[in-house]
Known about the structure:
140 residues, alpha+beta, Muramoyl-pentapeptide Carboxypeptidase, domain 2, 2 domains, five-stranded antiparallel beta sheet, 5 helices, 5 strands, 36% helix
Amino acid sequence: MASVSQRSESCLQSVDPVLGDVVRQALIAAPPWLDFAVISGKRTAEEQRALWQKGRNANGDIVDASAVVTHKDGARKPSRHQTGKAVDIVAFRDGQISWKAEDNYIVAAYVAGFAAACGVRLTGGVRWRWDAGHLELETT
Length: 140
């Protein structure tokens, strides 16, 4: 049985209890070859804005597409992170963080499938085919 890292637990404590519980259970139940962590939970509008600014100039125009991490500015376009309805996860390969989309899609698909088996519907990068490590509670 896997354990939940302190960082993952801190992130999970900040989000909706249903989301936090199902992702925590998925971490614990994950097979040994599937190593991942939660790296972000609830964010303030300011934190979201700072992430949105990456790869953009002062006017918000994209100047470096490779540096853009979100299209949600935290104000006009709020993120589900701001309401505690989203988490970001990251895969590990050989004990190191893997930013490869395919590794993170595998992890996100596992967590979404685990959640579905528990009756919790998640959406995000695994469904959108971008932002691989983003998972959020599906709205009804």
